[in-house]
Amino acid sequence: MGQERGGGEAATVFRVAEAEIGESLRRQVQALLQACFDGYPSRSYFKLPPHFRYLAMKNGALAAQMGVELRVIRVGSTVVRTFGVVDLCVMASERSSGLAGRMLAEVTEFARACGMDFVILFADDDRLYTRNGWARAGNPCSWVKIHEHTTLGLAIQADTGALMVKAIGQQAWPDGEVDLLGHLF
Q: 19-34: string of b/e by CB count within 10 Å (b at 16+)?
Protein backbone atom coordinates (compact mmCIF):
# COMPACT_ATOMS: atom_id res chain seq x y z
CA MET A 1 0.00 0.00 0.00
CA GLY A 2 2.55 2.58 0.97
CA GLN A 3 5.89 3.32 2.52
CA GLU A 4 7.06 5.57 5.34
CA ARG A 5 10.55 6.51 6.29
CA GLY A 6 11.79 6.04 9.81
CA GLY A 7 15.40 5.62 10.82
CA GLY A 8 16.43 6.05 7.17
CA GLU A 9 14.80 2.80 6.00
CA ALA A 10 11.42 2.28 4.36
CA ALA A 11 8.55 0.52 6.13
CA THR A 12 5.81 -1.07 4.04
CA VAL A 13 2.22 -0.73 5.27
CA PHE A 14 -0.38 -3.23 4.06
CA ARG A 15 -3.85 -4.51 4.94
CA VAL A 16 -4.43 -8.21 5.61
CA ALA A 17 -7.50 -10.20 6.68
CA GLU A 18 -7.07 -11.65 10.16
CA ALA A 19 -7.82 -15.18 8.92
CA GLU A 20 -4.93 -14.91 6.44
CA ILE A 21 -2.23 -14.11 9.00
CA GLY A 22 0.18 -17.03 9.38
CA GLU A 23 1.58 -18.32 12.65
CA SER A 24 4.95 -16.54 12.39
CA LEU A 25 3.38 -13.15 11.77
CA ARG A 26 0.72 -13.81 14.44
CA ARG A 27 3.54 -14.36 16.96
CA GLN A 28 5.11 -11.04 15.91
CA VAL A 29 1.75 -9.28 16.36
CA GLN A 30 1.35 -10.82 19.82
CA ALA A 31 4.89 -9.82 20.85
CA LEU A 32 4.35 -6.23 19.65
CA LEU A 33 1.01 -5.93 21.48
CA GLN A 34 2.53 -7.29 24.68
CA ALA A 35 5.50 -4.92 24.39
CA CYS A 36 3.24 -1.90 23.86
CA PHE A 37 0.39 -2.59 26.31
CA ASP A 38 0.98 -3.61 29.94
CA GLY A 39 -0.98 -6.71 30.90
CA TYR A 40 -1.90 -7.66 27.33
CA PRO A 41 -3.06 -11.32 27.18
CA SER A 42 -0.90 -14.07 25.68
CA ARG A 43 -2.57 -13.93 22.26
CA SER A 44 -2.75 -11.59 19.26
CA TYR A 45 -6.04 -9.90 20.28
CA PHE A 46 -7.57 -8.51 23.46
CA LYS A 47 -11.27 -9.50 23.46
CA LEU A 48 -11.92 -10.91 19.98
CA PRO A 49 -9.80 -10.97 16.81
CA PRO A 50 -10.30 -7.98 14.49
CA HIS A 51 -11.64 -8.52 10.98
CA PHE A 52 -8.44 -7.22 9.41
CA ARG A 53 -5.23 -5.43 10.32
CA TYR A 54 -2.85 -2.91 8.92
CA LEU A 55 0.72 -4.06 9.42
CA ALA A 56 3.92 -2.08 8.94
CA MET A 57 6.93 -4.22 8.10
CA LYS A 58 10.51 -3.04 8.16
CA ASN A 59 13.39 -5.32 7.21
CA GLY A 60 11.09 -8.35 7.48
CA ALA A 61 10.02 -7.52 11.03
CA LEU A 62 6.77 -6.07 12.33
CA ALA A 63 7.17 -2.39 13.24
CA ALA A 64 3.52 -1.42 13.83
CA GLN A 65 0.00 -2.83 13.73
CA MET A 66 -3.60 -1.69 13.89
CA GLY A 67 -6.66 -3.94 14.14
CA VAL A 68 -9.90 -2.92 12.42
CA GLU A 69 -13.41 -4.24 12.98
CA LEU A 70 -16.32 -3.84 10.56
CA ARG A 71 -19.51 -3.14 12.46
CA VAL A 72 -22.86 -1.47 12.16
CA ILE A 73 -23.77 0.37 15.34
CA ARG A 74 -26.80 2.32 16.46
CA VAL A 75 -26.48 5.95 17.52
CA GLY A 76 -29.82 7.23 18.78
CA SER A 77 -32.27 6.03 16.12
CA THR A 78 -29.65 5.99 13.34
CA VAL A 79 -27.79 2.86 12.22
CA VAL A 80 -24.30 3.69 10.89
CA ARG A 81 -21.63 1.63 9.13
CA THR A 82 -18.30 1.88 10.90
CA PHE A 83 -14.78 0.64 11.04
CA GLY A 84 -13.56 0.41 14.63
CA VAL A 85 -9.83 0.88 15.24
CA VAL A 86 -8.33 -1.53 17.78
CA ASP A 87 -4.92 -1.66 19.51
CA LEU A 88 -2.92 0.68 17.28
CA CYS A 89 0.70 0.38 18.37
CA VAL A 90 4.21 1.04 17.08
CA MET A 91 7.46 -0.58 18.19
CA ALA A 92 9.29 1.83 20.53
CA SER A 93 12.25 2.20 18.15
CA GLU A 94 9.92 3.21 15.28
CA ARG A 95 7.77 5.79 17.08
CA SER A 96 7.65 9.33 15.68
CA SER A 97 8.33 7.96 12.19
CA GLY A 98 4.82 8.54 10.85
CA LEU A 99 3.71 4.91 10.86
CA ALA A 100 0.67 5.40 13.10
CA GLY A 101 -0.53 8.38 11.06
CA ARG A 102 0.02 6.43 7.86
CA MET A 103 -2.09 3.51 9.08
CA LEU A 104 -4.86 5.92 10.16
CA ALA A 105 -4.78 7.53 6.71
CA GLU A 106 -4.96 4.09 5.07
CA VAL A 107 -8.00 2.99 7.09
CA THR A 108 -9.70 6.34 6.43
CA GLU A 109 -9.22 5.97 2.68
CA PHE A 110 -10.37 2.34 2.75
CA ALA A 111 -13.45 3.36 4.79
CA ARG A 112 -14.25 5.96 2.13
CA ALA A 113 -13.87 3.39 -0.66
CA CYS A 114 -16.13 0.94 1.24
CA GLY A 115 -18.89 3.46 1.91
CA MET A 116 -18.44 3.56 5.68
CA ASP A 117 -20.09 6.40 7.56
CA PHE A 118 -17.51 6.73 10.36
CA VAL A 119 -14.27 5.35 11.73
CA ILE A 120 -14.48 5.13 15.50
CA LEU A 121 -12.10 4.25 18.30
CA PHE A 122 -11.64 4.56 22.04
CA ALA A 123 -8.53 6.38 23.29
CA ASP A 124 -7.45 7.84 26.60
CA ASP A 125 -4.70 9.88 24.92
CA ASP A 126 -6.24 11.67 21.94
CA ARG A 127 -3.24 13.62 20.58
CA LEU A 128 -2.46 11.31 17.63
CA TYR A 129 -6.11 10.97 16.71
CA THR A 130 -7.04 14.66 16.87
CA ARG A 131 -4.03 15.43 14.63
CA ASN A 132 -5.49 12.93 12.16
CA GLY A 133 -9.08 14.19 12.10
CA TRP A 134 -10.84 12.37 14.95
CA ALA A 135 -12.98 14.22 17.50
CA ARG A 136 -14.21 13.29 20.97
CA ALA A 137 -17.87 12.27 21.27
CA GLY A 138 -19.59 12.35 24.64
CA ASN A 139 -22.49 10.04 23.79
CA PRO A 140 -23.65 7.51 26.37
CA CYS A 141 -22.54 4.03 25.27
CA SER A 142 -23.58 0.43 25.77
CA TRP A 143 -21.62 -2.67 24.80
CA VAL A 144 -21.28 -6.37 25.51
CA LYS A 145 -18.80 -7.06 28.32
CA ILE A 146 -16.41 -9.87 27.39
CA HIS A 147 -13.55 -11.20 29.49
CA GLU A 148 -11.38 -14.20 28.63
CA HIS A 149 -13.81 -15.54 26.02
CA THR A 150 -16.82 -15.26 28.30
CA THR A 151 -19.77 -12.88 27.93
CA LEU A 152 -20.36 -11.16 31.27
CA GLY A 153 -23.35 -8.98 30.41
CA LEU A 154 -24.08 -5.50 29.15
CA ALA A 155 -22.15 -2.37 30.13
CA ILE A 156 -23.78 1.05 30.04
CA GLN A 157 -21.81 4.23 30.62
CA ALA A 158 -23.00 7.85 30.48
CA ASP A 159 -19.76 9.00 28.79
CA THR A 160 -16.75 6.77 28.30
CA GLY A 161 -14.47 9.80 28.06
CA ALA A 162 -12.65 7.89 25.33
CA LEU A 163 -14.99 7.64 22.31
CA MET A 164 -13.56 9.32 19.21
CA VAL A 165 -15.20 9.57 15.79
CA LYS A 166 -14.17 10.57 12.29
CA ALA A 167 -16.84 11.23 9.68
CA ILE A 168 -16.06 9.68 6.31
CA GLY A 169 -18.80 11.34 4.29
CA GLN A 170 -21.04 14.35 4.90
CA GLN A 171 -23.14 12.74 7.66
CA ALA A 172 -22.71 14.41 11.06
CA TRP A 173 -22.20 12.21 14.11
CA PRO A 174 -25.72 11.61 15.50
CA ASP A 175 -26.96 12.49 18.97
CA GLY A 176 -28.17 9.80 21.33
CA GLU A 177 -26.96 6.63 22.95
CA VAL A 178 -24.35 4.58 21.12
CA ASP A 179 -25.14 0.87 21.07
CA LEU A 180 -21.99 -0.84 19.82
CA LEU A 181 -23.99 -4.00 19.05
CA GLY A 182 -21.03 -5.99 20.34
CA HIS A 183 -17.93 -5.62 22.47
CA LEU A 184 -15.96 -2.44 23.09
CA PHE A 185 -13.32 -1.75 20.42
A: eebeeebeebbbebbb
